[in-house]
Design brief:
about 50% helix; globular; 2 domains; about 200 residues; 9 helices; mainly alpha
């Protein structure tokens, strides 16, 4: 299957790789499928994992490790950084749903089915891959337009626009949440709304 989305037929290997990257220094030489294979993965799985890291921005077009790879190793940053990279890699999905990681498998299945030429089994792997990536991510700052997933030292300066708000302006926000959504996910949604709509942290 050829897809523009991160995908692996062995999702459990992706979980293992994400944990391994935390302890692995970013390579100075080529960061290719051979390097990943040397970490204990099969040749077939290494090819998929390599493509996944590339689509997520850990590896550039010349097969060199990027700042994303280096900063992923830093505690306190990796969750937010990975969330940012997931949003980029699954841009079409995030355009369709504000929080696609809260969508059920049926909705994700329909999306990937429309965007790829995949078998039912492959669509299942696409969904599992997306789920595992999201399990490692922290989407708390995803709504911040100035956040690019990098540390402040590598982040472009973002100037806050000066906006004058009419005190008589009323804003109605409608949020549709699946009744099966876990309480912690619902809490995150409303915490983000409070932060970015009202400018309040708590």
């Amino acid at each position: 299957m050829v897809t523009e989305f991160p995908y692996t037929p062995k999702p459990e290997d992706l979980e293992k790789l994400l944990n391994t990257l935390i302890t692995l220094e970013a390579p100075v030489g080529r960061a290719d499928s051979k390097l990943i294979k040397s970490l204990g993965f099969s040749a077939s799985s290494s090819n998929h994992l390599y493509t996944t890291l590339k689509l997520l921005g850990f590896i550039d077009g010349s097969d060199n490790a990027t700042d994303v790879w280096r900063q992923y190793r830093q505690d306190g940053q990796r969750g937010r950084l990975l969330a940012s990279r997931i949003k980029q890699a699954y841009n079409g999905l995030f355009e369709k749903a504000m929080c696609p990681y809260l969508e059920d498998d049926e909705n994700l299945y329909d999306f990937f089915k429309q965007k790829t030429k995949s078998s039912v089994k492959e669509l299942g792997f696409l969904i599992q891959t997306f789920r595992i990536l999201c399990d490692f991510a922290d989407f708390q700052d995803l709504m911040d337009p100035g956040y690019n997933g990098l540390l402040p030292s590598l982040k472009e300066e973002v100037k806050e626009p000066q906006v004058k708000v009419d005190p008589n302006l009323q804003l109605n926000v409608q949020v549709l949440i699946d009744p099966n959504t876990p309480d912690d996910k619902i809490e995150t949604i409303f915490k983000n709304m409070r932060k970015y709509l009202l400018g309040k942290e708590n």
